[in-house]
Design a protein that fits this description.
155 residues, Recoverin, domain 1, two-stranded antiparallel sheet, 8 helices, 4 strands, elongated
Length: 155
């Protein structure tokens, strides 16, 4: 199997993991969010994102089927952008899973603090952590779920 076929098979698996109901579709919003979460870090443009989105949702339904997605990543540049986005998401999922050891689906403020400190390599003051929690805990429940963690780690 060629490297590009391996990449495409991996991307198909990654795409299917984003599909909430397992029917092989994701919303345009989900793909847009995946790409925007890593835009700054990976140094690609809004034009790149728009091109990938438009190529992915050819029929304009707002829903991207797996075959549309695979057809949209035919160019090497777009495939590399998507791979970087999925790799980044996978790394964050792994990091969240390491912190959420008992699979509660959320992490506490203290667990979040330890995770952030290990990322930055220094202690975070109580005041700074309170500020981080205020901006990261968007639903105000005192916990950080995966979506909140994803936003915090990509901002």
């Amino acid at each position: 199997m060629s490297d590009s076929m391996r990449q495409i098979n991996k991307l198909k698996q990654d795409f299917m993991s984003l599909s909430d109901n397992g029917n092989g579709t994701i919303s345009v919003h989900e793909l847009d969010k995946l790409l925007r979460d890593v835009k700054k870090k990976q140094n690609f443009t809004d034009r790149d994102i728009e091109r990938i989105i438009n190529n992915s949702d050819k029929d304009g339904s707002g829903t991207i089927e797996v075959y549309e997605f695979l057809g949209a990543i035919g160019s090497k540049k777009d495939r590399e952008i998507i791979i970087k986005a999925f790799n980044n998401r996978s790394a964050i999922i792994k990091q969240f899973s390491q912190v959420d050891k008992n699979k509660k689906g959320y992490i506490t403020k203290e667990e979040f603090k330890k995770s952030l400190e290990s990322n930055v390599g220094m202690k975070i003051t109580k005041e700074k952590m309170d500020s981080i929690m205020k901006s990261s805990d968007t639903n105000g429940d005192g916990k950080i779920d995966f979506e909140e963690f994803l936003v915090a780690m990509t901002s």
